User: Fold this.
Amino acid sequence: MNKHSSTNTDKNKYLFCDNLPSKPLMNMGKVLVTGASGYVGGKLVPELIERGYKVRIMVRETSPVYKTLWPEVEVAVADASNQEQLKAALDGIDTAYYLIHSLRLGLRGFEVADIRAAANFRKAAEEKHIKRIIYLGGLGDIRSSLSSHLRNRIEVAQELKKGRVAVTVLRAAVIIGSGSASYEIIQHLVKAVPIIAVPSWARTKCQPIAISDVIKYLVGVLEISETSGKSFDIGGRDILTYETMLKIFASLLNKKMIFIPFPFSNIRFYAYCASILTPVSNPIIRCLMEGLKNDVICLDKSIKSFLPFEPVSYRDALVKAMSCGEQNREKVI
Ligand SMILES: NC(=O)c1ccc[n+]([C@@H]2O[C@H](COP(=O)([O-])OP(=O)(O)OC[C@H]3O[C@@H](n4cnc5c(N)ncnc54)[C@H](OP(=O)(O)O)[C@@H]3O)[C@@H](O)[C@H]2O)c1
Assistant:
């Protein structure tokens, strides 16, 4: 979470679900939000509270900040590598959001840790008779040659689905919102660099999505039981190349940037440069940048039949993120 910059007074200012087509479920049991200290989890919790749900958060380290921000929540301290702690966190839970991700461990560490965490969680959820798991993962076609990060996001979904508990999977590309690692990389690059040498992978396609729309889909699928056991691609209004995404950002800042086609496309080199220019750590940038060679767009549009709202454009998502309205993180990962 936003480690942990929001104050109690502004905590409800930036809620996203006011015009959600679904309605809060009055008789819903307790909802668990894992990854509540992370970017997406930290945005989801206040929405669930506002809609009247009983919420327990699962975090690895306790902090008085959680009770200050969200006095209504129960706090469970658990690491997904510890089965007993997981079982305690899942005790009495109806539905669990699975937002655990170990990208901070870098290329060599996160894959094993994330699959193990998902397997542990599935077993504990089964034992505790959880009704549903809702997982937010990444877009990408598993049959194609995906980056290890994108492949891992899909493998985590497969791992969670191996058990008896119904899983709803939402798959998203880059999330645009203040504090999201991908957004912070784009933002800092555009602000810092006047000339960009554009490698070929800057022309692959991406369907970025605003954090407000991600939260609407996460809450919406909870409230529509027919989404149980299904997988959905979610995306924003626009399909863009990464180059265009940088150009739109620069135009919003009224910044002149020169883009020069460049044959040298070594990801390690680009990641190193980006880690100097942005507050995001090198291992995270490496993992994310390796995915730039893969198109990440919604191929399945079935979510529209359950949650038929119009997602915001990339430009509008940027404007919102830049307005600092989304409870900034002090420290980006
Ligand atoms: N952000 C994006 O642009 C984006 C885009 C598409 C999809 N997604 C998906 O959205 C989900 C959430 O992403 P995010 O951006 O919110 O990630 P994040 O900010 O890195 O948060 C990850 C969370 O996982 C927790 N965690 C890691 N290892 C754990 C463990 N062993 N036990 C318990 N908790 C553990 C972290 O807790 P600590 O604070 O203790 O480390 C943190 O709360 C991921 O599945 C990701 O693939 C994100």
In short: The mean pLDDT is 91. The longest helix spans residues 106-127. The radius of gyration is 19 Å. Residues 187 and 249 are 7 Å apart (CA to CA).
